[in-house]
């Protein structure tokens, strides 16, 4: 049944990492592939090019990405703090903490375009479930059939 590679369920982490649509996990949700193309890196198509899922699910949908971006930034700060502590070390007798602060600030600034795009992709994945049968919207007619009761109907 899953012999065709197109019917395999794409991995959620890989699809988030590569900024793919949460519904089909295949269509790109950003028009530009390059996050450092700063003029167009946040431009999104109206609909997913593969499944037709609305990319901006509702007006102001992506306002909540600030929370995701904050969490990602904190995770990077903690990771860089631990890495600095292990590879460089901290001491009260020198300015190593200030060097780390500068390094961490530059790191966050440099990663900002990537983090902003990941925040939107993660935010979309929170609210939009994977559905391989989703094509140009939900099936018309009687509405979605709950798979739990499929046999009973
Ligand atoms: Zn899609």
TrEMBL record:
Keyword Transmembrane helix included in the entry's annotation: yes
Residues passing through the membrane, by range: 70-91, 97-115
Domain of life of the native organism: Bacteria
Alphabetic keyword roster: Membrane, Transmembrane, Transmembrane helix
Keyword Transmembrane helix attached: yes
Protein name: DUF983 domain-containing protein
